[in-house]
Amino acid sequence: MSTAAAVDGSDGLAPPLPPLLPLKNLASITHTSHHGDTHHRFEGPLEVVDMDYERLEHYGDSVLHLSVTSLIREMYPGLTPGGATLVRGALVSNLSLAGIAVEYGLHLRVLGAPSSIRFLERTQAALFEAYLGGMADEHGLETAMTWCQAVFRPRVVTQYALSKEAQTPIRPPSTNKRARSMLEEWSTKSKKYMKFETDEGVGPQSDRMFSCTLYFGDAADPSRVKGTGRTKKEATHAAAQKAADELELEGSDMSS
What is the 3-state secondary structure (H, E, C) of 92-147? Predict the structure, then answer.
């Protein structure tokens, strides 16, 4: 396998972790609890601030966001800022990064007390970012970004499809309002559980996207649908429309 293929995954395989020099590698896997030194609030001696992975994690976080944002722009140039933010947000979440760290076995290397910290999602995510920061420090930003994009390329494809599927075309307001009112009537008459949970939105203010998850049916094991929109109200109505369609409530869809 060529060095280029090993870094960019052009051979179709997940790229292996590029090795780090011993001191850099040690810093990338050392949790602050391992040495117990007092934290410096603003600045400290290099021999102290480089003793754990926090400094590398900070650098790696920037490398990660630049790499993934550039990759999304390359693969799906038609995405709006809001759409791209939805896709990127899922990819760089602690859940996603922790999964990658576990795939590479980074959590098994961590030094810290107690040893159970290796099973914490936030620790696993931090380990990935720290290793990426160490890679950029040692091998250069371009190499680190190339490797990172190789890791995320198949994940971008999957997340793009999931995010696109979650987008519900916004129907005329009367349609969605009718769906919600029929859904509320169904819930009352059938004494079924129904609950809306709306997030605070993602993306810039000029292109913000909101998501609403609607739980309905059996309170112990409810069904779940998600709707999105430019406002919380649109997201709520979109979720209601999906639920009404799923329940086949007569008259909920007035778009035809």
Answer: CCHHHHHHHHHHCCHHHCCECCCHHHHHCHHHHHHHHHHHHHHHHHHHCHHHHHHH
How many CA atoms within 13 Å lie on the side-chain side of 33?
10
Q: CA–CA separation, 113 vs 124, rounded Å?
A: 14
Other CB atoms within 10 A of residue 164 CB: 13
Who's near 75: CB < 8 A, 6+ residues apart?
153, 156, 157, 160
Phi/psi for 216 (5° steps) reads -155, 155
**Residue 149: which of 164, 165, 136, 166 has the closest Cα?**
136
Name residues whose C-beta falls within 8 Å of residue 66's C-beta, 6 or more positions apart in sequence.
Answer: 145
pTM of the model: 0.61
Instruction: Kindly give the residue spans of alpha helices, DSSP state H, lying in 36-108.
Output: 46-49, 54-75, 81-91, 94-103
Cβ proximity of 192 and 213 under 8 Å:
no
pLDDT tens over the chain, length 256 residues: 444 445 555 555 678 988 887 766 766 767 666 556 555 566 666 665 566 788 889 899 999 999 999 999 999 999 998 889 889 988 999 989 999 999 999 888 888 767 778 888 988 999 999 999 999 989 999 999 999 999 999 999 999 998 887 775 544 443 456 888 889 999 999 999 999 999 887 777 766 788 889 999 988 888 988 888 888 888 898 889 888 888 888 654 434 3
